[in-house]
C-alpha cells in the first residue's frame, strides 16, 4: 500500500544514485516539483527515461544528475531546442550524456511490456531505420512463427523508479488522474518503486469521466505537492504557463544563467518546495 | 432516423447481404450480454453458411450452430450466463457437427488485439502449461530474443472478414456509444475486421451522444465501422443495460428448444420463420401468456 509522505521523504526513500528513473506525463501533469527535488537532493548517474523529454529533463541534465537518456523525442515544445541537453551532447557539459533513442510507439510498447510482466513487445516499427541499424540492445528482430515475417521485438522497460503527477489521491493512497493522460499507468506498473505527487489528498475519490485510477497497492509513495506540475498544467487546477517555456530558452542557452537559476529556483527554495 | 447529411445507415437485411458463405465473422458482446441478435437473426434469414465464428460466445453462436450455419467456432467459452452452458453449442459439440478452436479468454483477446494492430501474432503467457497448446496443434511458441530467453505462447492474429456488434446509441455516421457497465471487446472486433457493422437501440444526432453518457462511453468511432442499423430491441433476449435487462424467461424458452429436434423445430417455426417484426410479435405473445414465473434452465 502507498505511504503518504512529504515529497522530500519520497525522493529520499525511492530515488538512489545510479537508478533508472522514468518521469512521465505528456504535456499535461509533468512532475516538475519531484524533478526539482531530485536535483535538490543531488542524485547522480541516473538513467532518465521519458517519451518526450522537455524542460524538466533539460534541468536535470544541466544539474549533472544524468548519465544516460532513454527517449523518443526531445525539445522545448513550441520554443525550440533543449540547450542544456544540447550542451551535454555537444560539449559533455556538465558531463557526457549517453543516448538511447527510440520511436514513440517503441517506447509505449516497452512500457506496456514492462507493465504486463512480459520480456518484450512486438511491433512493426524500427525496420529500415537507423535506430535498427545501430544494433541497439533494446531492439531486436523476431520472426513470426506462423507467417515467417520478421518483426521488431523491443525489450520491456522496467524502471527502478517511476515518478508521475496526478490531480488527486485519497487518504488510503489510491491515485486518480484525468484529462490527457500518457503512459503514467504503464510506467508506474512497470517500475520497481514509484512516487506520485498530487495536487491534493482528499477523503474520497469521486468518479470522473475517463479517469485513470492507480490503486494504492500499485504505488510506493504519494506526496502532496500543490502546483507540482507547473509550468505544465493540471486539468481542473491550473493552466499551462506558456511564458515560462519561452523564458526558459535564454536561461538554458547560457551556463551562468542556468547556474543562477539553479541557485535561486532550486537550491534556494528547499524550505518551500521540498518541505525539508 | 434523425439528422441530415451522408450517413452509413443500413437495414438488417443490407448487412446480412454483405456476408458470404465461408467467411470468418466476429460477433461482439459477451456471453448473453449486448449481443447483436437482430443481426444474427438476419443471417438466419439469409442463405449464408459454412461460417467461422469468433465470439465470447452466447446465444449468437447457439442460434447459428442450431441452424447449421457454422463450420468452426473460435472461443474461450460458450454460455448464457444464467444458464452455464449454451445448450445448442453443447449439443453440436456432443454430436460432432462443428469444429472448435478452444482458447484461453486472454488468448482470444490477444488474437483480436494482434489483428487490430495488423500484427501476425502477439506473445502471451496464457495457455502455457495447459491443454490449450495440446488441443490447438496450430499454436506455436516464441522465444524472447533477450537475455531471459523465455518461451511464450504465440497467439496468431484473429483476422475477421466481418464484425457485428450492438451498441446502446449511435449516430448515423457510425459513432457508437455503450451505456452499460462494460465495453466488452466490441472495439477490437471492429478493428480486427475488414468490415464492421453496428446495430444500436437508437440512432441519435451526434450532438446528443454526450447527453447520455461521458466521453469514454463513445467506444466506437466512425472510422471503425462501415454500416449502422437502428434496431430497437436488437440485443433481445440478451441484456442491453440500461435499456433493458436479459429476458430470462425467453432465454429459458430458447434453452428448452435444444432438448429435442422437435422442440427446436417448434421454436424456429414460432420465432424465426418471419421478419424482425414477427419475431417481436411472437415474443410479445410469449410474454403475454399465463407464464410460469419459476421457469428455470433446460431439462
Total count of domains of chain A: 2
Q: What proportion of the residues of chain A form beta strands (DSSP E)?
A: 15-25%
Low-confidence stretches of chain A: 271-276
Biggest interface between chains: A-B, 20 and 23 residues
Tell me the name of the CATH homologous superfamily of the largest domain in chain A: Glutaconate Coenzyme A-transferase
Number of strands of chain B: 11
Task: Tell me the major beta sheet of chain B.
Answer: 8 strands, mixed
Outline of chain B:
globular
Describe the structure.
The complex is a heterodimer of chains A (276) and B (299). Chain A is α/β, with parallel strands linked by helices and 276 residues long. Helices cover 32% and strands 24% of the residues of chain A. Chain A has helices at 7-14, 32-40, 55-62, 83-91, 104-116, 130-133, 184-190, 242-253, 255-266, 270-274, and strands spanning 3-5, 20-23, 46-50, 66-71, 98-101, 120-123, 139-143, 150-155, 161-170, 175-177, 193-202, 212-214, 221-224. In chain A, helix 1 (7-14) crosses helix 2 (32-40). The two termini of chain A are 24 Å apart. Residues 271-276 of chain A have low confidence and may be disordered. The longest helix of chain B is centred in the last third of the chain and has 13 residues, at 276-288. With 299 residues, chain B is α/β, with parallel strands linked by helices. In chain B, the strands form two sheets. In chain B, strands 1, 2, 3, 4, 8, 9, 10 and 11 form an eight-stranded mixed beta sheet that branches. A three-stranded antiparallel beta sheet of chain B has the order 5-7-6. At the A-B interface, strand 6, strand 7 and strand 8 of A face strand 5, strand 6 and strand 7 of B.
Give me some keywords for this one:
heterodimer; A: 276 residues; alpha/beta; Glutaconate Coenzyme A-transferase; 2 domains; ten-stranded mixed beta sheet; three-stranded antiparallel beta sheet; 32% helix; 24% strand; globular; disordered C terminus; B: 299 residues; 20% strand
Amino acid at each position: 500500500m502507498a505511504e503518504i509522505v512529504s515529497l522530500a521523504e519520497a525522493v529520499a526513500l525511492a530515488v538512489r544514485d545510479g537508478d533508472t528513473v522514468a518521469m512521465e506525463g505528456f504535456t499535461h501533469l509533468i512532475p516538475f516539483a519531484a524533478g526539482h527535488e531530485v536535483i535538490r537532493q543531488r542524485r547522480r548517474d541516473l538513467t532518465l527515461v521519458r517519451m518526450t523529454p522537455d524542460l524538466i529533463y533539460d534541468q536535470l541534465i544541466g544539474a549533472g544528475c544524468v548519465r544516460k537518456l532513454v527517449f523518443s523525442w526531445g525539445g522545448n515544445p513550441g520554443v525550440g531546442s533543449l540547450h542544456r541537453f544540447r550542451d551535454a551532447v555537444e560539449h559533455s557539459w556538465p558531463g557526457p550524456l549517453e543516448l538511447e533513442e527510440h520511436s514513440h510507439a517503441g517506447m509505449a510498447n516497452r512500457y506496456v511490456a514492462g507493465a504486463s510482466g512480459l520480456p518484450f513487445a512486438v511491433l512493426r516499427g524500427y525496420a529500415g531505420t537507423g535506430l535498427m541499424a545501430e544494433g541497439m540492445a533494446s531492439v531486436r528482430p523476431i520472426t513470426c512463427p506462423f507467417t515467417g515475417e520478421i518483426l521488431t521485438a523491443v525489450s520491456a522497460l522496467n524502471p527502478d523508479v517511476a515518478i508521475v503527477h496526478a490531480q488527486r489521491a485519497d487518504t488510503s493512497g489510491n491515485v486518480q488522474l484525468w484529462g490527457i493522460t500518457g503512459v503514467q499507468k504503464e510506467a508506474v506498473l512497470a517500475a520497481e518503486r514509484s512516487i506520485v505527487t498530487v495536487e491534493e489528498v482528499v477523503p474520497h475519490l469521486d468518479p470522473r469521466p475517463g479517469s485513470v485510477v492507480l490503486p494504492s497497492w500499485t504505488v510506493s509513495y504519494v506526496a502532496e505537492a500543490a502546483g507540482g506540475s507547473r509550468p505544465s498544467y493540471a486539468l481542473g487546477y491550473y493552466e499551462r504557463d506558456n511564458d515560462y517555456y519561452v523564458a526558459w530558452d535564454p536561461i538554458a542557452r547560457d551556463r551562468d544563467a542556468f547556474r543562477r537559476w539553479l541557485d535561486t529556483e532550486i537550491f534556494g527554495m528547499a524550505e518551500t518546495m521540498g518541505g525539508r | 432516423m434523425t439528422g441530415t447529411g451522408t450517413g452509413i445507415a443500413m437495414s438488417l437485411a443490407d448487412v446480412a447481404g454483405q456476408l458470404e458463405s465461408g467467411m470468418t465473422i466476429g460477433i461482439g458482446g459477451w456471453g448473453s450480454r449486448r449481443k447483436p441478435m437482430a443481426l444474427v437473426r438476419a443471417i438466419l434469414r439469409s442463405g449464408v453458411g459454412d461460417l467461422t465464428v469468433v465470439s465470447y460466445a452466447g446465444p449468437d453462436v447457439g442460434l447459428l450452430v442450431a441452424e447449421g450455419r457454422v463450420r468452426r467456432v473460435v472461443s474461450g467459452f460458450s454460455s448464457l450466463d444464467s444458464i452455464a452452458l449454451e445448450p445448442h453449442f453443447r449439443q453440436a459439440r456432443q454430436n460432432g457437427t462443428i469444429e472448435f478452436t478452444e482458447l484461453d479468454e486472454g488468448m482470444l483477446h490477444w488474437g483480436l488485439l494482434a489483428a487490430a494492430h495488423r500484427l501476425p501474432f502477439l506473445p502471451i503467457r496464457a495457455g502455457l502449461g495447459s491443454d490449450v497448446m495440446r488441443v490447438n496443434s496450430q499454436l506455436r511458441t516464441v522465444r524472447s530474443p533477450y537475455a531471459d530467453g523465455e518461451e511464450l505462447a504465440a497467439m496468431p492474429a484473429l483476422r475477421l472478414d466481418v464484425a457485428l456488434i450492438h451498441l446502446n446509441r449511435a449516430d448515423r455516421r457510425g459513432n457508437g456509444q455503450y451505456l452499460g457497465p462494460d465495453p466488452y471487446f466490441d472495439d477490437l472486433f471492429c478493428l480486427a475486421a475488414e468490415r464492421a457493422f453496428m446495430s444500436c437501440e437508437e440512432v441519435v444526432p451526434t450532438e446528443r451522444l454526450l447527453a447520455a453518457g461521458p466521453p469514454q462511453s463513445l467506444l466506437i468511432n466512425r472510422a471503425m465501422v462501415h454500416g449502422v442499423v437502428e434496431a430497437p430491441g436488437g440485443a433481445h433476449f440478451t441484456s442491453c443495460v440500461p435499456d433493458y435487462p436479459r429476458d430470462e424467461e425467453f432465454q429459458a424458452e430458447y434453452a428448452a428448444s435444444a432438448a429435442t429436434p422437435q422442440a427446436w423445430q417448434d421454436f424456429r417455426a414460432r420465432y424465426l420463420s418471419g421478419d424482425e417484426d414477427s419475431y417481436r410479435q411472437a415474443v410479445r405473445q410469449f410474454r403475454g401468456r399465463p407464464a410460469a414465473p419459476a421457469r428455470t434452465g433446460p431439462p
